[in-house]
Write a structure and sequence with these properties.
Blueprint (H helix, E strand, L loop, with lengths): L17 H8 L2 E2 L29 H5 L13 E3 L1 H4 L23 H10 L3 H7 L13 E8 L2 E8 L2 E4 L2 E2 L11 H13 L10 H9 L2 E6 L7 H10 L3 E5 L18 E10 L4 E8 L36 E5 H7 L2 E6 L16 E9 L22 E5 L13 E9 L12 E7 L9 H6 L4 E2 L8 E8 L2 E9 L6 E9 L4 E4 L24 H11 L5 E2 L1 H14 L3 H4 L4 H11 L7 E2 H21 L6 E2 L1 H10 L6 H11 L6 E2 H21 L11 H9 L2
Antiparallel strand pairs: 1-4, 2-5, 3-4, 5-6, 7-12, 8-9, 8-12, 9-10, 10-11, 13-20, 14-19, 14-21, 15-18, 15-20, 16-17, 16-19, 22-23, 24-25
Helix pairs in contact: 4-7, 11-15, 12-14, 14-18, 15-16, 15-18
C-alpha cells in the first residue's frame, strides 16, 4: 500500500537540480568531529561564532535554491538563541514530547515522530550527541546524527534560527528558553535540502532517518482484529506508532480530530468499570493543542465510572495529549505507520522490552549479471537476482497464538538514488522454501518453485517492507526489480522476534552440482598439439618467439581452418597483447614455444567447455551459461568476482563471446598461479611491495 503524505502531499524529489544534489551531499559528515570543506567556522568580530555557509541564513535555506515555495511564511530575521531569550539552554529537564510544538511549517509528520522518539532516551542520545550547549565552550555550532543507508552520519548546523518578530517561526518548545528541538528541525531540513522539503511528508521517512528502524504502513481495516493487543505489543517493543485521519487538510471535526494530520500513539492502558474493562489508547497532537473531546477525553463523564484505584495516573496528561477508547481510535484514524526498533537501537538494562533482532546486508542489481527482474521473467532471467538464506528455528513467544510460527520483517531499501537525482526503481520481494543442502536456488529449482510469500506488487518507493510468519525452517529471500537490467544498490534488513539468521546465498564453485568437462573433443574443432607446433614455427621469428601481431595471425589461421572465425569472431591485437602479457614473465613482449604450448593446452580445454555450454550454438554464452562454464573449468570464484567478470568481459548485448571467454579464463588462471607462487607458506595471504604491485597490475 502506498502511504499517503500526511498534512497534504509530499515534496517532489525532482524539485532539486543536480547542483543542489551535490550541495546536499557536501553537508553530510561521516564521523563525529569531521568538518566539511567550505564551512567557515568563524566570522570576523567578537564573538567568533560558527556560521554554516553550506546552509546559510538566507532564503535559499527556507525555500531551496530556486526560491519557489508553497509556503507563505514571513521571516523577519535569523536569530541566535541568546538574541531570543536571556538564558538559552539546549535541553531543559530532559527531552520530552512536550518540547515539540508545531510552528508555521506543516511538518507534523516529522514532529509526531520526534514526540514518540522523546520517550526513547537511548535513541535520543544517538540523535542528539552529548556535551553540547550554551555554556562553557559554546561556539554556535551544534551536531546531530541521522541514520542513512545503514550508518549514522553527522550533520552540523549553526544556531541561527528563522524568526518573526523575535519569535521562532517553526518548531519550538513549551519552555521558551529550550532549543534542542528547533535546532534538530534545522539539521533535518539541512539533510533534506531546505525547510521547504519538510513541508508535507511521510512519518515513515522520519522514523527511519531518526532511528534506523524498520518501517511498516497499515490501514486500520488491514490491522489485526485485536488492535489494542497489537498496539500494546508494539509499544512493549518500543516501536514508534503514528496515525492520521484522511480528509481535507487541517480541518478539525466536531470531536476535535484534525484531518490529514499526524498524531503519535504514546501508550495503551485499561480501566475497570463496574461490569467491564475498557481498553484505552493515549494519543498526542504535536500541535500541543486541539484535543479529542469525545468519550474518555479530559474531564469527560466516563472517568467518573472508573473503579480503579490507580485512576490518578490517567490524569497526568500534557496539553495536546488525550485518551480515547480503542473503538473510537478505529473510527477516527485510518492510516497507521509504525517503526520497529531492534536490540542495537534500544537500551534494555532490565530486560522488560522485547525488541527485534536485526540482520543487515548490502547488495546490488547489476545489468546482465544480478538484475533478473520480477517473477514475470522466471523462465529467462529471474534466477540471476541476489539471494539471501533465511533460517527460522526459534518460534515466537506469543501465548495468544497456538500456531508454531516465527514472525519476521524484511525491509528492502534503495540506496543513494534520491540524493543522486536518479528515479527510484520498482522493487519487490519474494520468499521461497529453501533447501539446507544447497548453497542457493538454481535456475532449475526456481522453475519448479512457487513463492510462499511475495509483496503484492513492485513499487517505486525508497523502501518496501514485508511482514511474514512462517513455520521454522529454511527459506530464501529474493529482492528484485520489476524489469530485468534495472541497476541499483540496495540494503536488505531482516528483523526477527528471536535469534534466527539470514545470510547472503552466494553462487560459488563448491556446489556439488557442478557440471563436468566433457572428455571427448568435438572433431575438427582445433588443431592437435603437433599441428600447433607447426603453426608456431610458421609464425615465429628467428628468436623462436612470437609477438602479439604474430599470435593474432596464428589464431586467425586456426579459426579459419576450423571454419569458426565467422561464428566465434577474431582475436584482436589488444587481446593478443593481453594474452602475451599474462604469460610473459620477463617483460619482452613475446611468447616462446613453452609459454605458447602451455597456453594452447588450456585454450583447447576451455574451448571444449565453451562448446559444451554454448547450448544453442550461437557462438556466445549468456550469464547463466557462464556460471556453469566457469564451474566446469574448475575456477572457484565468489559472486562479487563473477559480477566483476560480467562487467569486464561481456559485450554490449551482455553475452560472453568466445574470445572474451578465453581472455577471461587466461587472466583468472594466470592471477591464481601468480598468487600461489607468492604465497610461499600457503597461508592464503601474500606480501607485495609497491614496485611489485605496479609491475603486476600494469603489465597484465
Amino acid at each position: 500500500m502506498y502511504p499517503i503524505p500526511w498534512s497534504g502531499g509530499v515534496h517532489n524529489p525532482g524539485f532539486y537540480n543536480s547542483s543542489w544534489v551535490l550541495r546536499r551531499n557536501a553537508v553530510l559528515y561521516p564521523s563525529p568531529g569531521t568538518a566539511a570543506a567550505g564551512v567557515n567556522k568563524s566570522v570576523p568580530g567578537p564573538p567568533a561564532l560558527f556560521e554554516d555557509l553550506q546552509f546559510p541564513a538566507t532564503n535559499s535555506s527556507i525555500h531551496g535554491p530556486r526560491g519557489a515555495s508553497q509556503l507563505n511564511i514571513a521571516i523577519t530575521g535569523w536569530m541566535r538563541p541568546q538574541e531570543i531569550c536571556a538564558n538559552p539552554q539546549f535541553i531543559v529537564d530532559g527531552t520530552t514530547r512536550t518540547d515539540i510544538c508545531q510552528g508555521s511549517l506543516a511538518d507534523c509528520w516529522f514532529l509526531s515522530v520526534v514526540a514518540c522518539l522523546s520517550l526513547n532516551k537511548h535513541v535520543m542520545k544517538q540523535v542528539l550527541p552529548p556535551d553540547q550547549g550554551f555554556g562553557e565552550g559554546y561556539t554556535g555550532r551544534f551536531r546531530f546524527k541521522f541514520w542513512q543507508y545503514g550508518q549514522w552520519i553527522e550533520v552540523v548546523v549553526d544556531d541561527r534560527l528563522p524568526t518573526n518578530n523575535k519569535k521562532l517561526q517553526f518548531l519550538y518548545s513549551k519552555d521558551n528558553n529550550e532549543f534542542w528541538s528547533p535546532l534538530l528541525e534545522k539539521a533535518y531540513a539541512k539533510l533534506k535540502g531546505c525547510y521547504m522539503s519538510l513541508y508535507l511528508g511521510y512519518p515513515l521517512e522520519a522514523m527511519v532517518d531518526l532511528t534506523g528502524g524498520a518501517p511498516e504502513s497499515f490501514q486500520i481495516n488491514e490491522m489485526p482484529k485485536d488492535l489494542w493487543k497489537f498496539l500494546r505489543k508494539l509499544l512493549q517493543k518500543n516501536s514508534i506508532v503514528c496515525c492520521a485521519k484522511p480528509g481535507p487538510m487541517g480541518v478539525v471535526n466536531e470531536q476535535g480530530i484534525v484531518t490529514w494530520h499526524a498524531y503519535s500513539v504514546t501508550g495503551v492502558d485499561q480501566v475497570q468499570l463496574k461490569t467491564s474493562r475498557v481498553e484505552l489508547v493515549r494519543v498526542r497532537n504535536p500541535w500541543g493543542r486541539v484535543e479529542w473531546n469525545g468519550a474518555w477525553s479530559d474531564g469527560s463523564a466516563e472517568w467518573s465510572q472508573v473503579t480503579d484505584k490507580n485512576l490518578p495516573q490517567f490524569a497526568h496528561l500534557e496539553d495536546g495529549e488525550f485518551w480515547m477508547s480503542i473503538q473510537d481510535f478505529k473510527k477516527n484514524f485510518v492510516n497507521v505507520e509504525i517503526c520497529h526498533l531492534s536490540l542495537d537501537q534500544l537500551s534494555n538494562p532490565d530486560g522488560k522490552l522485547k525488541p527485534w533482532v536485526q540482520m543487515m546486508y548490502e547488495g546490488r542489481w547489476v545489468r546482465g549479471f544480478s538484475a533478473g527482474g520480477s517473477l514475470a521473467y522466471k523462465d529467462k532471467y529471474y534466477w540471476m537476482n541476489p539471494q539471501f538464506k533465511l533460517t527460522l528455528f526459534e518460534e515466537d513467544d506469543d501465548p495468544d497464538d497456538p500456531e508454531v510460527t516465527c514472525t519476521f520483517l524484511v525491509v528492502l531499501m534503495q540506496k543513494h538514488r534520491w540524493q543522486m537525482g536518479i528515479n527510484l526503481l520498482c522493487v519487490g520481494l519474494d520468499i521461497f522454501k529453501g533447501d539446507p543442502t544447497k548453497a542457493y536456488l538454481t535456475y532449475e529449482d526456481l522453475q519448479k518453485a512457487t513463492p510462499v510469500l511475495s509483496t503484492k506488487q513492485h513499487e517505486n518507493r525508497s523502501q518496501i517492507m514485508m511482514r511474514g510468519s512462517l513455520p521454522p525452517g529454511h527459506y530464501v529471500i529474493i529482492p528484485s526489480t520489476a524489469y530485468p537490467n534495472g541497476e541499483g544498490e540496495f540494503l536488505l534488513r531482516v528483523f526477527t522476534e528471536k535469534g534466527n539468521s539470514a545470510v547472503p546465498a552466494e553462487r560459488n564453485t563448491s556446489s556439488t552440482e557442478n557440471p563436468q568437462i566433457p572428455t571427448a573433443v568435438p572433431p575438427c574443432l582445433l588443431p592437435s598439439a603437433a599441428e600447433s607446433r607447426e603453426l608456431f614455427d610458421k609464425f615465429c621469428g628467428t628468436d623462436e618467439a612470437i609477438s602479439a601481431l604474430e599470435l593474432q595471425k596464428l589464431l586467425a589461421e586456426i579459426l579459419q581452418k576450423a571454419g569458426l572465425n565467422e561464428k566465434w569472431g577474431e582475436f584482436g591485437l589488444d587481446t593478443c597483447k593481453s594474452l602475451i602479457s599474462l604469460t610473459d614473465r620477463h617483460g619482452f613482449g613475446k611468447m616462446g614455444f613453452e609459454g605458447f604450448s602451455d597456453l594452447w593446452s588450456k585454450i583447447c580445454q576451455w574451448t571444449r567447455v565453451f562448446s559444451q555450454f554454448d547450448k544453442n550454438g550461437s557462438g556466445t554464452m549468456d550469464s547463466q551459461e557462464m556460471f556453469s562454464a566457469l564451474q566446469a573449468a574448475g575456477f572457484q570464484v565468489d559472486e562479487f568476482l563473477m559480477q566483476l567478470i560480467g562487467l569486464r568481459y561481456t559485450d554490449p548485448d551482455l553475452t560472453f563471446s568466445y574470445v572474451n571467454f578465453i581472455c577471461c579464463l587466461t587472466r583468472l588462471d594466470t592471477m591464481i598461479r601468480a598468487f600461489k607462487i607468492m604465497d610461499k607458506f600457503g597461508t592464503g595471504v601474500v606480501n607485495i611491495n609497491y614496485k611489485e604491485w605496479l609491475q603486476m597490475t600494469m603489465y597484465s
